Amino acid sequence: MNTARRVSKNFASLTLAEILTRVCAVLLLIYVARVLGVTALGELAFATAVIGFLTFFADFGLTTLGIREIARKKQSTDSYGTNILLFQSIFTLFLIFILGVSLVFLPISHAIKIITLFYGLGLIPLALDMSYIFQARQAMQYILIGKVVNQGTYLVLGVTLITLFRNVVFVPIAALIGGIAGAATTYLILGNVLHFRLTRPDTRTFKMLILAAVPFVASEILITIYRSVDTVMLQFFRNTSEVGYYSSGYKVVNSIIMFISLVPVAFFPLISHNFKHDKGQFQRNILLVAQTIGIVSIPLAIGGIIYARKILVLLYGGQIVPGVDAFKVLLPLVIVIPLKLIFISIVIAADRQKHYMISGAIGAVINVVLNVLLIPKHGMTGAGISILATETIAGIYLVINCTSLLNYVGDIFRRYFLKPLIAVVLMGLVAVAVSNAVAGVSLAVLVYVACLYALRGIPEDVVGGVLGIFKPA
């Protein structure tokens, strides 16, 4: 199977897995709201927020590191997988113990403590989930199978238990059982397809993985902090309504970014391998990633700005209109963050993950300072400006480090911006000129694709890869 077709299949598998996860979660939450009421949703929201933070520690950056190392040394798959499993299992049990002790002293209701504890137990199947090995070996279709089992069990069992017992505590119980089923399925497939076997833990490999993973987990924590502090400061300096307006638009932006980010995720094992073994192919893949992301992210950001009001009204109704300006300020993140992800992939593939951590630290400091300066006066628009400036400056730091590593950084920017920007100008003119949203979007998309085609801005590898998805292997 050629590279483009393989990457396209991997991207399709990751996309379907992500869609499946989100759809099952939304369906179950809708059912919980209808059967148990909005209070139950609030209890679940608090518990998942707490566990979401612990998840960063439980993973410890080892899945990303494991993907990179296994992609380079496939013969060491069993050793890396065993040592990562050992650490994550031990560390997860430690985190659950800390969570249990903390819940005893937290001033929250007994029901929320029980819900949070069961969600905490859900960290166990997360530690046992070795699907990152499929990602490293570029066999991501098996990740989809594990997700189907996991999320299917979660949804069916969750609905059944809620119907029978009318108690929200069964939602995290269903999630725990679904996670175990998904992890077990993944392990069985690993053994049968990749012939993975647990080996005796190796002290040297264990230590190497832990030390190398520290910058990853530190980076993720720092980024989580600066991407959350704006909401906290909005609540402190302004009011809850403004937080609602701001977060509503931010959720849309994050969903778009999540989808686009699957492109570098699908390519990451390949470029990790090629950086060590084939620098020419590494360059070609990086430029292909840049061009692919650019032709998607730029029109989505510009089109989103043009139709910002209509998008929010369609999704949330007329009550969310005050958040339109902040939404427009946030939408350029759809361009900035995916571009930044390219350079993050480069520094990680090049064993320079410390620069990823430094960029996170720079972002945390800048974001806090800008939010303190801008939110009191400009509210949610100031918060949007702060995060946009933060991501841009953190990205510039990564670009500077990549410039010293590669001599084709300028080519990355040209592939990302040049032809998509030309096409998006014409697209924007059409979108603005046509008042009917449905007709405007349809014509704008046709004009954009036609312009890209005329400019030869659509990579042949992408077209061939997408068409290859539908061909038998």
Architecture overview:
The structure is a single chain. With 473 residues, this protein is mostly helical. It folds into two domains: 1-212, no CATH class; 227-466, no CATH class. It is built from 20 helices and no strands. It has helices at 3-36, 38-59, 62-72, 77-105, 110-121, 123-128, 132-136, 141-165, 170-193, 203-226, 229-237, 240-277, 279-306, 308-316, 324-330, 333-349, 353-403, 409-433, 437-454, 460-469. Helix 12 runs parallel beside helix 16. The longest helix has 51 residues, at 353-403. The chain is globular, with a radius of gyration of 23 Å.
What is the structure about, briefly put?
With 473 residues, the chain is mainly alpha-helical. The chain contains 20 helices and no strands. It starts with a helix and ends with a helix.
Estimate the helix proportion, in percent.
over 70%
Strand content: under 5%
Please provide the count of β strands: 0
Largest sheet: none
Can you count the helices? 20
Radius of gyration: 23 Å
Q: N-to-C terminal Cα separation, in Å?
A: 7 Å
Instruction: Tell me the overall shape.
Output: globular
Overall mean pLDDT score? 89
Are there runs of 5+ residues with pLDDT below 50, and where? none
Number of domains: 2
Layout of secondary structure:
Blueprint: H1 3-36, H2 38-59, H3 62-72, H4 77-105, H5 110-121, H6 123-128, H7 132-136, H8 141-165, H9 170-193, H10 203-226, H11 229-237, H12 240-277, H13 279-306, H14 308-316, H15 324-330, H16 333-349, H17 353-403, H18 409-433, H19 437-454, H20 460-469
